[in-house]
Amino acid sequence: MTIIYAILMFCVLIFIHELGHFVAAKASGVKVNEFALGMGPALFKRKKGETVYALRAIPIGGYCAMEGEDEESEDERAFNNKPAWKKAIIVVAGATMNLLLCMVLMMVISLYTGTMTTTIDEVSKDSPAASAGLQAGDTILAIDGTKIESWTDIIEGITAAKKQVELDVERDGSTLSLTSQLTKGEDGRQVIGIVPQREHNVAVAVKGGILNTWNMAKMMGKTIGQLFTGDVSTKELTGPVGIVYTVNDTAKYGFMYLLYLTALISLNLAIVNMLPLPALDGGRLLFIVIRKITGKAITDETEGKIHFVGIMLLFALMIYVTWNDIARFIVPIFN
């Protein structure tokens, strides 16, 4: 089942990404020669109109092969003969679809699990919060004089507190000021022993999905920056083998955790694909901008060769990451 989950996840994420390129290309009048899910030998092929639709044997990868994408073409409907703004839309469409998928999945998760509010649902017995007089149904308005907008603000306020925390709470229409001591939770964080109420609301779930996606994007952006500065080792990168093992561990906790992992990887694909590196969508977008400024200084053939080198480097990186995954996950099993 782990392998099935992983394959389904790869296929969905890749299909969504390539579908973005495909739809944008068709809408821009670009000729699409082939739309394929998977790599390697074709298991199924069917031509409809000018496009061949294929399902290929290796369920990692896929592509939307456009006329004139990496070579010069005289066809007026070729990618290379379209205006720069249309090319940019087509290139960005794949990452945009992955981003939208992440948002939708995070909205579904928020709606199912509920969004944590600033109202207390439960006060742990014998906790600092209970000693301070906090009760279920209290709404926290401020911590140490700082206004509270979300449950995240409450966590941050308690974490930043020193020996105790001052809370302004609303109870039965009245505002109370209470002082709570602090204790350590199982994960080592400072806590006072309260559990929030969860709100199952579509509008709140939509807002929560967008906000959670943004927070994950900031975290990923920071991590990618640390990779380039050397603060994070490339040995921490994970490829398909590592993802399969992560899927295996995540599946034990339930379907919602798998959805969260799918959203996380989808956002990762969106961000990484937009890095300004050859062969990636971000690299193609960079060339579109450069060639718009420089005119014909760079030919389609030259750009195609640069992207080919980029693909080879990406393959080398994939081999390196896969080797690290094998050493990290598979070798210990036999030791």
Describe the structure in your own words.
With 335 residues, the protein is α+β, with helices and mostly antiparallel strands. The protein folds into 2 domains: 2-112 and 209-334, no CATH class; 116-199, Pdz3 Domain (Roll). The chain is 53% helix and 22% strand. The chain has 9 helices and 10 strands. The chain has helices at 2-27, 84-113, 128-132, 151-160, 202-229, 240-251, 255-273, 281-294, 300-334; strands at 32-48, 51-66, 115-123, 139-143, 146-147, 164-171, 174-181, 183-184, 190-191, 194-199. A 4-stranded antiparallel β-sheet has the order 5-4-6-7. It has a two-stranded antiparallel ribbon with strand order 1-2. The chain has a two-stranded antiparallel ribbon with strand order 3-10. A hairpin with a 5-residue loop joins strand 8 and strand 9. Helix 1 (2-27) packs antiparallel against helix 2, helix 2 (84-113) packs antiparallel against helix 7 (255-273) and helix 2 (84-113) runs antiparallel to helix 8. It is elongated. The protein starts with a helix and ends with a helix.
Global geometry? elongated
Give the terminus-to-terminus CA distance: 25 Å
Number of domains: 2
Q: Label the structural class.
A: alpha+beta
Task: List the strand order in the largest sheet.
Answer: 5-4-6-7
User: What kind of sheet is the major sheet?
Assistant: 4 strands, antiparallel
Average pLDDT confidence is 87
The value of Rg in angstroms is 25 Å
